[in-house]
Amino acid sequence: MFARFGNWVREGQIWGSVFRHGVPRDRRTRAMAILTNVFLHLHPVAVRKSGIRLSFTWCMGGLTFFLFLVEIVTGVLLMFYYRPTVEYAYFDIQGLRATVTLGLQRELHRWGAHAMVITIWLHMLRVFLTGSYKPPREFNWSIGVILLVLTLLLSFTGYLLPWDQLAMWAITVGSNMARATPGVGTEGPLSSFIQIGGVPLVHAGDDARFGLLAGTFVGPNALLRFYVLHCVFIPVVVTVLLAVHFWRVRKDGGISGPL
Amino acid sequence: MMSSLLAAGSIFDTIKDGINALCQPHWFLILSVVALIVFLLGYRRFTKPVFAIPFAAVCIVFFLASCLDPNFVEIVKKADNVPIVMMMFAVSFFLWLAFRQAALNDEATENGQPLIEAGADDKVLVWPDLVYIELIALVLCTAFLVVWAIVLRAPLEQPADPNVAPNPAKAPWYFLGLQEMLVYFDPWLAGVVFPGLIVVGLIAIPYMDTNPRGNGYYTFKERPFAITTFLFGFLILWVVLIIFGTFLRGPNWNFFGPYEYWDLHRPMALLNTEFHDLFWITLMGRALPTESWAFVPGYIIRELPGILLVGAYFVLGPLVLRMLFFRKLYLQMGFVRYGVMSTLMLVMMLMPIKMALRWTLNLHYIVGITEWFLNV
Ligand code: HEM
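^ Those are the sequences you sent over. The predicted structure of the assembly is below.
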């Protein structure tokens, strides 16, 4: 009964137009299943048997990517409720709890972000311990490091958005560092030498920290700036780099293994 | 009955006091380094299930027992600290997994047997083999995350108030290693230069590591130097410092044992030894030089010993290291690679060196040109 219905669906025009191959039961159709699907063809058709063992990759790169997708979905849901202004930010987050049915998106987003930081470290550890950064994969390791930095920055910029004490002071501690940037922070070494006729060029109103916060303290401009970085700029850059990263995994010969 | 209970209580208190004392930064760090070295020396034995499983059990029991202590629980159960506990267990587990396979592989190569990962032509189709693994991983991960989200609410404290600073004010947990560096170095190093060099150093790894072996499989024997250095950086100078920052740093950034109460009124640690005092006053037996000489300001002369010391560290360091340990490596790597590698390594070692100087001499700055914010 079900089998017949299933066959009827799979032989119909609609199914056939979406999946341009038969049921993946033999080598040819299984290869087609990968080749004709834009998402699945991130993979090659066939892979080294030892490379896909869980004990080899720990699936950590895959989980990191999956958590990134979770962050995008839950992040969009959060953006429906959240307004990045000093008046509303805190109360929007508070309201999420009280008013939204099944309002888990904030929890999923926050714990997913923490989890992603952990999985990316573990992914890096596994790549290191299997020596998978060695030729020909040097460049993909470098892209990975940039992805690591961007992941941490994503987490960092997101930390401010709830606009509670935890958020504001964590970002204050973090962004105070920028004040000490050599040459371009007011309290950085050598910055006092950058002056014209005794007028200092680097001061609290134009130094590196000011650039980060769009102000001299963590205020409304910083909130807006972090919001835009968090929701638009960094995710877009990460997405582009991820495309390169995955592409290179394939072009560098697939998951590494002994020669 | 009562008295035996009391006696048991006091035994636990003694144990707790002992652990609190061992968690002082110097002991904690030294013990971690010793543990890492012992593990790397004996990885073939220690990763065997007969050792690993009881060890894991002891750790878990110990952790659960610690949760009976109110001060311990207070900090561990903070919603944002839960992931760090997960990270500690996850890192330990995956280290075991990696080194177990390294041990098996290293034994296999010694006996002329194939590696676990052998079989370059052994291919399987992505559909179904890989796609299904991914699907299962995805479902499990989702389930895990949903349960986590239901059980644990995301924290939301009081609305932001620029006039009320919490004590301690902590950076997000994944940056606590950097915040811990602030104890030992000024922000321009701990917050800007070191993070920058960590990133540069990580990117440089594949270009510095010229060892062709160990590409694509778990091993320790074939690349002991690379793995030891990386694990020292990752486990000791990153993970352990995060543990410090999360669990052991309390009000005024004072250090507290895991079973200690975070006392707001404990005074801040005092730093009072400057290297220029040690040199000019203690060693030379004279006052600090203040006069300028020609166009060199007095404070540069005052700091000259420190400047020379740091300069010598970076100029002579690579040469000395080469003579002592890296003769073969130098030939293998060549001048540029070796120069970059040894410099980055010396930068990394600045942290433990400064820590040791702080613990022994209570040293504040090696070079203290406070006039320019140029302090090391
Ligand atoms: C957003 C972060 C990242 C994602 C989503 C990601 C994803 C992946 C995936 C899915 C793979 C396939 C194999 C596997 O799962 O292990 C992979 C491989 C690889 N990744 Fe990443 N990665 C990320 C960050 C990093 C970082 C931080 C590094 C290193 C610093 C890195 C270096 C590499 C290298 C060298 C490979 C090739 C490994 C091999 O062929 O065995 N990646 N990555």
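The first strand of chain B starts at residue 123 and ends at 125. Chain B touches chain A through 93 residues (CB under 8 Å).

Shout if you want it in another format.
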